[in-house]
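During the no-cost extension, the postdoctoral fellow (Dr. R.K.) reprocessed legacy sequence entries with the updated structure-token encoder. One reprocessed record is reproduced below for audit purposes.
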Amino acid sequence: MTQISRAGTAYGIAFGLVFAGFGLFGASTFFWADPAKIHGNPLVGIAVCFFFAAVGLGIVLAVIYGGRKLKRQSALQQAHPDSPWLWQDDWAASRSESKNRNTIIGLWIAAIFWNVISITVAAFAVPQLLQKSDLKALLPLGFCLIGVILLGAAVRASIRRERFGKTYFEFASLPYTPGRPLHGTIHLRFNTTAAHGIDLRLSCVRQVITNSGRDSTTNQILLWQDTKNIPADALNAGPMGDAAVPVDFGIPSDGLETNHDHPNDQVLWLLHAEADVPGVDYSDDFEVPVFRLSPASAPGVSSSSFANYNSSNNFASSSAAATAPAFQSDASDVPAPSNPVVVVSTGPNGGTEFYFHAFRNPGKVLALILFTVAWTAIVYFLHRSTAPALFPIVFGLFDVLLIYASIRSALGSIHIEVGNGRISLRKTLLGIGSTQEFSFTDIGQILAVTGSYQGTSPKSASYSIRLLTKTGKKLTLADAIYDRQEARWIAAQIQKFAGLNLDTHVSVDAPFVSYAGSPPQRGQSPAAVSPAFKRGNRAAAIFGAMIFLGWIGYIAFRIVSVPHTPHRSVSSGAATTRLSRISYSALTDSDEQRIRQLPAQAQAEELLDRAIQHDSRALDLFEQSIGIWLGDIKLTPRMKQLEQRSQFSTDLRVRQANADLNLAMDGWKKDDHSAELMIERAESDPQSRANSIYFMGMLAGRGVAYDRIYPVLVNYAKNDPDAVVRQWGVEGLRFLGTDEALDQLFDSFAMDRSATVRERAGCNIADCGIFTRTQRMRMVPRLLSLLRDSRTSAQTRNWSFLALTEITDQNLPPDVSAWTDWYNQHGAEKKAEFEQQDSWQVRGDE
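Re-encoded structure tokens follow.
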């Protein structure tokens, strides 16, 4: 009986309300926030937040609607406990409504959700990547392409429903029972022609759902199937363009009952109809009720192994199929398929050869190759990005398997020769392979075998031809056969040639499905979950969750660390030349008009001075004008003082303006061309190398050609034989503002052979540069580890203690134990304090 969980309903409603609440809160935050503090278009953020709020409200409505539906379902079950075919409204009315309506709704939900997310991400990322001619722009565009495909599928499904109307399958009897015919009529709007008639397919499917939530996977196991074609002239046309399609199948006497008792393990009888017509093709799916009228009349079902449950496709008349068992054995012959993939001829040893040529399933092989290419591109981008090493390794290993599967599917061939008292098997890849032989006297069975497939279409099912020896050994003779009739026909032909008893049933082998017992039936306890499968699924789920959470964490890190513009600049700690200072009030409209009338030098000096005094409007105006002043600003005494003061501002945005100022005074535009000129000059002119790599850091820190500059800068900072070059490489790294740059600075601080380089690296770790306080806090454990190392020099130890003081604002004695105790007790608290501050707030002099 269906049970209604009040706790589950309450939890679902609460979850939806929280989801909607966060969406509305985020939208209000974007709406009321200071536009100067928002990077990007706030309207996009508001739209995304409202979308998530709508999703949350949709969850609430779905939970309420689902609760009412479950309540009504429970009432029906209580009213008809022994008649499960009356538990569905359409079945109780002797009809089955088309399942395509739910498919259409699902497609539209998936298309809308995917496109909102992918288009939003692309709108933020693609323009910046295209400006840098970065191939990573193809990745978000690829996700947008998937959204277009989903949208096209949703539109096509909607057109199909509009064209053929609200279709349904009308039952001739209720319920249908094993051992008897299945008669009925499909009603639809069909004012078109079907030159090849309408193809019908009746399938008995076991549907197993593993895991739950977003990690759930639906596996279909085809237990039995029969097909028929209804000629166009057999359709019963109505006066209003409607049509009636006659349905006539036989249900095997050992067929299983429909069973919905266990949502994660169900037995379904599905009727599929399709027709190739002009325009959008006709396609429909109906679930039909197959039940025994009394559970006591059901024959005993072996529960020794799920593999004992198998299927058969019977192409004889329905009257014969209605009485013959077909699930566990089938002695009927199978006619040859109309368009077989296998080529049958005389083999080199005089026997009959079944040849499966390379690239025999071009559609599926091409799909696999395209997926492999896309996956390889993801691996390449992960390798070129700053993602943790785990991601390219794991994705790369899976990519190797995909590449092997693509090569094998496209270039692998199979030769099976039957004759002269033996079966000879030769599998080749690029013409290279080995041969195996089996004597007829050693062979126990030749069977067609299928496994589970994901999705809802039985066309996705793949079949194999399996040889079982009398000693229990199993060998797959051929695989990747996607036609059920062809698989059964090949098995029958080999059985005949080998002198074996004819058995054309299709055995089921689904080792990776959690439920290893027999399919669920009324009056039987549910199939037990194999402990091995439990452990395997739990381990797989944990591993998958770790990969998923790690990936989300990395994306979140990139979102937080990259787009925040204030992450670059600073210089050495030289004493500041003091000139008379001017105190300004907040910049007004009249002040702005006056400043715009001044020469470029005076504009830059006044705006930078105001910015150093924390006037955000002046800072914005400075950043807007810096490109216009290119080449017109000189290092006058006052500008020199302002330049030095801005290096040590408590606002990272001012430090970033310092980098822009230096680039403008040196005549560098912030574009890829400047980056290439700097790299070329550093390589070709040793005299200007130090200056070039210093400005490289400023340029990359402003988001220009970062991926191009970063490895060059690191190479000079760590490997150049000239200590002066390494020193200015270290100075350039401080402008980048990324964790990886901070890690490189620590390596130079700990290992460089020059004391000057180590000192500058230590200063940049502690206080200088465009790193947030949270980023610098991450260096504390590494500094403590360096202090505990007996090989660390006395000078480096002194610098390490100084760095700890400047990073944490703590005045402790130069004792590693004292610092370790403080960090263990207060490190998390201090980090939380820094995280609560605005990211641009840092320790400084101004």
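The chain is about 50% helix and 15% strand. The chain has a mean pLDDT of 80. The remaining legacy entries will be reprocessed before the final report is submitted.
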